[in-house]
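ok trying this again, last paste got cut off
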Amino acid sequence: MKTKRGALVFWLALACALAGAHSARAAWVIDTIDGPGNVGLFTALALDADSGLPRITYYDQTNYALKYATHNGFAWNTVTVDAGQVGAHNSLALTSTGHPAVSYYDYPNHALKYATRSGGIWTTQIVDAAGDVGEYTSVAIDESDRPHITYYDRTRGALKYATHDGTQWVIQTVDIGGDVGLYSSLALDSSGRPHIAYHAENYRALKYARWNGAAWDIVTADISAHVGAHASLVLTESDQPFIAYYDSTYSNLKFTKLDPVGGWQTQVVDSAGSVGYDCSLAVDSDGNPFISYLVGDPLVDLRLATWNGAVWVIQTVNSAGQVGEFTSIALDPATEDPRISYYDRTNGDLKFAYGGVVGIPEPATLALLASGLAAAWASRRRA
């Protein structure tokens, strides 16, 4: 009897925790930043460390340009960074002084480019033009404000890595053979060393590379099916790698993390429909992951999955038309509430969602709670 009552108490407590943990947060507010036309592809979001105000890079397909949007606390402002069929596959990071640093693909030259802004002036340069290179870029800035960039070399089917040593760009091939390096995602650890999650197409796998100070350590993180597209990597405060990614065999959103003994702990986050495209990952100070992603076939909704310490809580952020491609998520530095940039295909707009987690979980979460409560209540009645 004591055990059955304990089960009931557990499920009731879990239900209250799910409702109570988020009930004080506001529902989502959606801003349209740029449009009309066909803008907002390949969004990349960063939040100013001091103010928490958003900065977003994105591709304007109507004008074939890389653009940059900022919010000053009152209104959005957008500018063109570079033009001439450039800006796809962009990635954004902020320097220690809050200046933007952007890696992106130059389609006419099949090259990797890099742009920075200082004093209101944008400076652009070609980083690598050896073959067809520069898709699936990811940029990070170290403590010395030097850039690190990963990207795909389509000519050789390789993953490449570029960093600036203060004088010139130094370029390495991280992995080659098997068409590797698609959907690369880069993070720097507390020692400034790079870690990379990426997709190996010919092996249909999620791979992970880490610089050990002398060479690249490369492992396969998941090869259970055709997995690893749309990989998004974050390192926790203890340098533990977390990766969100898409399972194209089962059309699921997956999540994995490396445990202290070197094993990958993998979960299916969401399997309700065709889910997990364009996923983007952030982690709060308690080590809880937040994942924004696209759901639907054809493309439909923007969803958010959050881990509350016990279960994944899943909610729809926006379902007004075909929305949610090219998501990018960041957590407010003060409140740790999620902020998401994404593309609205129906209207051809760049959009931004902010607020917090709504009080009522999605049906999948409610079904889990209901089944647990029902089982516990039935056990109590049989007693």
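PB: full thing came through this time. The chain has two helices and 28 strands.
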